[in-house]
Design a protein that fits this description.
A 6-stranded mixed beta sheet has the order 6-7-8-3-9-10, sandwiched between helices. The termini are far apart. The protein is globular and about 55 Å long. It is of the alpha/beta class. The chain is built from 9 helices and 12 strands. The structure holds adenosine-5'-diphosphate.
Length: about 260
């Protein structure tokens, strides 16, 4: 499914947090939103998921206005994984993930719902946690469970807000590999807010660099992650080398 954002603006109170954002996310691609703290990455993701209502502009899903969909239909199409949750769930992992089936569940949980949850836990390699209590898990484990909860929704678009921010390097790669696998196997489209420019570089088809409420530039990782753009947007001098799989590798040197 193709996602298009057209001329979207949003404000908290009087001040605009996003101004005139337009971008396309093609089916089966990963688009990263990068930019300094406060640039509007989380806000944009929430506007796409209709958690926040834009002041102006439209979100299209395969050319149809997302605003016209019922919230149940929208949640069948879009899964959202917020920044590392501090939610308290005194439920088992299995039940927390099963909650993700809510948009599909009729009067009762079906055998198919249970099967999808079990399959997803296996897909993520976390079936051993199924009967543990969510609250007793580490940040990295919780992040994978939150991902599982979005995956069982069987969305065509996955919105991830800083999916790797609290994870060690192994979990970062595991989570990103899961995302990549979903994109390859199920042709889902992903929009993710990312602080780590090198993970964005390595895993994205397109990088959207936000600055001061708007899009500063966007394109493939090599065209966006340049020392000049990083200096203009983050105020940091950096070196960019050729990294793994020929993707740019950014080394921040110092603030200017
Ligand atoms: P990012 O995700 O890029 O760090 P955010 O989308 O969180 O940026 O924030 C964009 C701007 O909106 C910032 O100036 C931030 O202070 C402001 N903002 C975010 N959430 C709220 C809120 N709930 N109420 C008021 N202002 C907010």
């Amino acid at each position: 499914m193709k996602l298009s954002v057209k001329e979207l603006s949003f404000g908290y109170g009087n001040a605009n947090a996003l101004e005139d954002i337009s971008l396309d996310v093609d089916e089966g691609t990963i688009v990263s939103l990068v930019g300094p703290n406060g640039a509007g990455k989380s806000t944009l993701i929430k506007c796409i998921d209709r958690i926040l209502k834009p002041r102006k502009g439209t979100v299209f899903l395969d050319g149809k206005q997302a605003a016209m969909l019922t919230s149940r239909d929208l949640s069948k199409m879009m899964g959202y994984v917020p920044q590392s949750t501090h939610e308290v769930f005194t439920y088992t992992v299995f039940d927390v993930v099963l909650m993700g089936r809510r948009p599909h569940i009729g009067w009762r949980v079906s055998a198919n719902d249970v099967k999808i949850v079990a399959k997803t836990l296996r897909f993520l390699g976390i079936e051993r946690f199924a009967s543990r209590y969510f609250d007793e898990l580490s940040g990295g484990e919780k992040q994978k469970i939150a991902m599982a909860r979005a995956i069982v929704q069987e969305p065509e678009i996955l919105l991830l807000d800083e999916p790797t921010s609290s994870l060690d390097i192994r979990h970062q790669l595991e989570v990103m590999n899961i995302v990549k696998r979903l994109v390859l196997q199920r042709r889902i489209s992903v929009v993710m807010a990312m602080h780590d420019l090198n993970l964005a570089s390595r895993f994205s088809d397109k990088v959207v660099m936000l600055k001061d409420r708007g899009i500063y530039t966007m394109g493939n990782p090599a065209s966006v992650l340049t020392p000049a753009n990083i200096e203009n947007v983050y105020g940091v001098r950096s070196e960019v080398r050729n990294g793994h799989m020929d993707r740019p590798y950014v080394m921040p040197i110092e603030p200017i």
